[in-house]
Each structure stands twice: as C-alpha cells, then as structure tokens.
Amino acid sequence: MVDSGLDSDALVAMAACLGVTALIRRIAGSRIVFGQEVVTVVNPVFTDDSPYR
C-alpha cells in the first residue's frame, strides 16, 4: 500500500477546530439591545425581537 503522506486524523481535527472557531465567532459577534418593551438580539445573519415585561 502506498502512503500518500496525509494524516486523515489530523485533517479531521483541523476541520473540527475550524468549525468550532466559526461557531464561537458567530456567538461572540452577536449583541443584545435592551429596549423599553423588547429585547433585540442582533446577529450577523438575522435580528430577533423578543417582548418582555
């Protein structure tokens, strides 16, 4: 069997690290704005309003 020189476990670990990093950056990039009657979560992809008392 010919060895290609690539370690597949290392590639899987690198892909997992990149995925976790992207998730953490997305969460850290969010901000929460407290208004008079709503809480607004501003995310890089969408904005969500939640009413509260």
Question: Can you describe this structure?
Answer:
This protein is an alpha+beta fold. The chain contains 1 helix and 3 strands. It has one helix at residues 8-28, and strands spanning 31-34, 38-42, 47-51. The chain has a 3-stranded antiparallel sheet, with no helix packed on it. The longest helix has 21 residues, at 8-28. The protein is rod-shaped.
Secondary structure elements and pairings:
Layout (H helix, E strand, L loop, with lengths): L7 H21 L2 E4 L3 E5 L4 E5 L2
Radius of gyration, Cα only, in angstroms? Answer: 20 Å
State the major sheet. Answer: 3 strands, antiparallel
Number of helices: 1
Q: In whole angstroms, how far apart are the ends?
A: 68 Å
What structural class should be given to the helix and strand makeup?
A: alpha+beta
Which keywords apply here?
alpha+beta, three-stranded antiparallel beta sheet, 1 helix, rod-shaped
Short description:
This protein has one helix and three strands, in the order H-E-E-E. It has 53 residues and is an alpha+beta fold. The chain has a three-stranded antiparallel sheet with strand order 1-2-3, with no helix packed on it.
